[in-house]
Design goal:
Blueprint (H helix, E strand, L loop, with lengths): L1 H15 L3 E6 L2 E12 L2 E6 L5 E5 L4 E5 L2 E2 L17 E6 L3 H4 L1 E10 L2 E12 L4 E10 L14 E3 L5 E4 L18 E5 L21 E4 L4 E7 L4 E6 L6 E4 L37 E3 L5 E6 L12 E5 L4 E7 L5 E7 L7 E6 L5 E5 L4 E8 L2
Antiparallel strand pairs: 1-2, 2-25, 3-4, 4-5, 5-6, 7-8, 8-9, 9-10, 11-12, 12-13, 13-14, 15-16, 16-17, 17-18, 19-20, 20-21, 21-22, 23-24, 24-25
């Protein structure tokens, strides 16, 4: 009986995959094609050099999507703490993957004191359908109870280092403790060592892995070729979602300054500005619950080149932040409201199409291409 049920499920998933619909974003005609369906709360994705896609599911599975076929879960993924917002999170393909076959991924890891975000690297054996040489190269210094605010996105920078965003685990004051990784952005070499130029590399005034602090729960990050810097998006409380450009050693305010309020309606911190704390490049009020960030640099939508694409969980839409030639945000356009579901991640494929992951029990990978 279980085999029959499994076959029915797979047939239903195959029927949904490949489905296409016509829609628009502003005046631009869009074709939205479901490339994969039946995913269990997909969270992260990245493209291999040949166009295949690595996708994570929060419950702990990592799969390949290749020519419309979704693989079984890859073997070798370590156990994950899949409670609340925890689980298997982001995945990033190493820039030298064609030679090294390495990927990096983040996950919520259980241990003494509770759980915390960890970063691992591994070698992908596509033929065997497994990860080899799995090595955890970073874990937060203090695990804690609860299932919220793990972050976490991975970005490889052009200089070969990588950035990882970390939530403050629901304990807002950890974001201001420089002896704590939580609520920070970290910068590492691909082997987990400390790169030259980290602001606290000697460990005397902060954790040597730290790049910036004062973040609440950053679930989007991307390298910006326009300003040649890291960009992040993070969840505020009730309002106060932010786009930031984290710079070495700087403090982005949470919870001392914020544009949001507590869920009770109470004021948080000391206002929206204070010397020594950085201002966001953009903020949303009310909150859109942003997750996933891409800088559009593909050929398919030249009118969007350089703009920011942000997924929204709360309003189930894609926010396009329009930027000028210098990279300043000058406006917002919202698209696809309630059309696809909770948008967890956004990425740009090598051909310039835009891919979305929907955070649902029956999650989908959706490809947006230009229509006629």
């Amino acid at each position: 009986m279980w085999l029959v049920a499994l076959m029915v499920f797979l047939l239903a998933a195959d029927a949904r995959a490949g489905a296409a619909e016509k829609t628009t974003a502003g005046a631009i005609p869009i074709v939205a094609e479901t490339m994969a369906a039946g995913l269990d709360h997909p969270w992260g994705m990245d493209f291999l050099p040949d166009g295949a896609v690595v996708i994570t599911e929060r419950a702990g599975a990592m799969r390949l999507l290749d020519n419309g076929v979704v693989s079984p879960p890859l073997a070798g993924v370590p156990p994950v703490f899949a409670e609340g917002q925890g689980g298997l999170l982001d995945v990033a393909v190493a820039p030298d993957f064609a030679v090294s076959r390495r990927i990096a991924f983040t996950f919520a890891e259980a241990g003494d004191g509770g759980a915390g975000t960890a970063l691992a690297r591994a070698t992908l054996d596509r033929k065997a359908g497994r990860l080899d040489d799995v090595e955890v190269i970073f874990r937060v210094a203090r695990k804690s109870r609860g299932g919220v605010h793990f972050g976490s996105r991975i970005v490889f920078a052009p200089d070969g280092t990588l950035f990882v965003t970390l939530g403050e685990r629901g304990d807002r004051y950890r974001a201001q403790d420089f002896s704590d990784h939580a609520g920070g952005v970290i910068r590492l070499n691909p082997d987990g060592s400390i790169p030259p130029g980290n602001p606290f590399a000697d460990g005397s005034n902060g954790r040597p892995e730290l790049w910036s602090k004062g973040h609440r729960n950053p679930q989007g990050a991307a390298w910006d070729p326009v300003t040649k810097a890291l960009l992040t998006v993070e969840h505020g409380a009730q309002g106060g979602d932010e786009v930031n450009r984290p710079e070495a050693g700087k403090n982005y305010g949470w919870p001392v300054i914020t544009y949001g309020k507590d869920y009770s309606g109470a004021t948080i911190g000391e206002g929206t500005h204070k010397p020594g704390y950085e201002q966001p490049l953009w903020h949303w009020d009310p909150s859109i619950a942003p997750s996933g960030l891409a800088v559009y640099d593909g050929p398919m939508f030249p009118e969007w080149r350089g703009d920011l694409l942000v997924g929204a969980l709360k309003f189930r839409l894609l926010s396009r932040l329009d930027r000028d030639a210098a990279g300043r945000i000058v406006g917002e356009e919202r698209a696809f409201a309630d059309q696809f579901g909770r948008i967890r991640n956004v990425d740009v494929a090598p051909d310039g199409s835009i891919w979305l992951l929907t955070d649902e029990d029956d999650g989908r990978a959706i490809r947006l291409s230009r229509g006629r």
